[in-house]
Amino acid sequence: MAKYILKRVLMAVITLFIVICVTFFLMNAVPGNPWLSEKTPSQATIDALNEKYGLDKPVIVQLGLYLEDIAHGDFRNSIKMQKDRPVLDIITTMFPLSAKIGIIAISWAILVGVPLGCLAAYKRGTWVDSLLRVVCTIGISMPGFVVATILLHVFTGGIEGFKIFPTGFDGSWQSYVLPCAALGFYPMCYLSRQTRTAMLDSINQEYIKTARAKGLKNKKIIFKHALRNALIPVITYLGPQIAFTLCGGFVVEKVFSIPGLGRYFVMSIQARDYPIIMGTTIFLAAFVIVMNLLADLLYKLVDPRINLSKGGN
User: Which of 125, 195, 268, 284 could form a disulfide with 273 if both were Cys (CB 3.0 to 4.6 A apart)?
Assistant: First the structure.
């Protein structure tokens, strides 16, 4: 186990290095600079700002200096949106709200999606199964901003006399409902489809046939024996999905004007605030890597037959 974790940590470092390099080059490949706006400063001012923040150097030199700063734990300061404020301070300030909304969203997605998938497998071939498949297919096909827009229109006064929730985010419990619903709808539908598929695959295994031959009830077979093995692909999906959800649905936070990390990341791209873009990308990538590692470790708890040291069953 220790050797496996060490191997994954080394792979994580390499992955982060690649993510940093690719993001840095792509970010600098986009034409323009952070100083262009409606009131564009003089060329002399732009040159002075580029020199101050090291943007006048070749990209490969900038990358080397940035990697050196990262190695010392320095994610630099914002150069535009919150000028000279440390990027780490911005992330630690914005992330808790995104994480709170993400935890609520992923929690209801799991609590609803997994049982619905089990129900669809239990009722396979019936109208219940067909209805759930249609709903989940629609949910998977709809982008998050579409779901968010529909919820805003329906529940915030778009339909006359049907204003239940506030249009913007004000910190009240009512303002959490629509963002959490919009953010959790896609993973709920995906989890339901994933659970149904995995359950149907488990049901056809030999140990399930043996359980039926012993006279066990169908409900017990599905919800106790088949579900345990069916959870493995579900855990695989949940690893990166939890990271993305907790870091904030970029578009969803933008639609509901939530002052979280996701919305701020979108704004930093529009403003070309390079340190914030890089810091947020690294944070999200590291979070995804950690969640994938935790998902792999959970495999062992769900199915003791899995041997992590050999990287498989």
Answer: 268
- Residues near 95 by Cβ (< 8 Å), separated by ≥ 6? 247, 248, 260, 261, 283
Q: Would the CA dihedral through 89, 93, 98, 100 be positive or negative?
A: positive
Q: What is the CA radius of gyration of the chain?
A: 24
pTM above 0.85, yes or no: no
Which residue in this structure is represented by tokens 């780490």?
88
Could you tell me the mean pLDDT of each successive run of 10 residues in the chain, 313 residues long? Answer: 81 92 90 74 84 89 93 90 89 91 92 91 89 92 87 79 80 91 93 89 77 73 72 80 76 86 85 91 88 77 63 46
Q: For residue 223, which of 251, 259, 199 has the smallest C-alpha distance?
A: 199
Taking the C-alpha atoms of residue 291 and residue 301, their distance in angstroms, rounded to an integer, is: 15
Using CA of residue 45, residue 49, residue 51, residue 57, what is the dihedral sign?
negative
Q: What is the DSSP letter of 223?
A: I
CA distances from 114 to 108, 195, 231 (A): 10, 6, 9
Tracing tokens 């808790």 back to the chain, one arrives at: 96
Identify which of 4, 2, 3 has the alpha carbon closest to the alpha carbon of residue 311.
Answer: 4
